[in-house]
């Protein structure tokens, strides 16, 4: 009899037990942290040395590169008002050395906050701000090997609740990454899911996919309302990968084994991507432009690695469309408008307008007002075209545009585009002004 019970226990133990439902919806958050280090909140580059271009730090585009040469370099950012800095992070594309973070209330006396020593194999570099506060934030690099950083963020006490985002029919405004939370965007699903990483995925945009024999890594976003979109991309693990984008007017869900609604991946069998691109060399980033403007609320991003690695991460993603953005919080208000093709941000702190930030159509930044620093003006794209220089540069962004309808035509605003047309990195404009030499 005892052997019979043991046999029953062994048989039960061998049965697959449901732990966490596949395609289980992620927990929702009322407010999502948003980086304070953007022009949208009135932050400017006060001064810099060795950052090319420094203003790319503030554009809110995680794929946009900032080149750093070997040796010493630094950038000083100035917030519209004294701010809390909880953490600072960036993605490392090949640099090796040390970075030190410090803050200041007046730009003269500096308080050290944190530092890190890293190698090229350290992909995500994160510095802990603790309870640091300051009007100025300084990053100092001492590198034995130059390269590129991307996806710079400084997280403080601001959230998406501090921003109002509107889109106009004429498509004016600055590029806004709706995946970062601004405008109410939220991550709904991730598959396959590394369950211990849910908080990072929902709040800090870090998508960590576990070791898996599944063909695709998928993230599904709800942008809060229908958005007009013209670019998608990601900064990810440096491995060859194919990247596809799907758009849905209605979220495809069905009841799971618990009777709860869950995403239905069968929709991908009957849908075509609205945009796709391929990182053929394993550069670790990619951008894709659709053949026509995409109008949709729900966006699914899919990565298909050439082989199934032990893990695959998307450190930042971009779901981008042009919009006008206003900011309000902590005694600061920032309003944006479009003037002669330029986006103009008017920064008001404690009732005084002391800064105007103008971003041109080719990414050039001009700052005027009593709070402007000596190194505030300059480009936000690499006008020296150093992207083909190997170490310290970046390969061109590779992508193809497609016009196939997604989910029975949902999300696509027009006929199909050229399936073989490539895209290049964000506005690599050779006719942009040469960046001025930053002061020592």
TrEMBL record:
Region forming the signal peptide: 1-21
The answer to whether the entry has keyword Signal is yes
Keyword Signal listed? The answer is yes
Q: Which UniProt keywords apply?
A: Signal
| Region annotation (Disordered) ranges | 365-440
In Swiss-Prot or TrEMBL terms, this protein is called F5/8 type C domain-containing protein
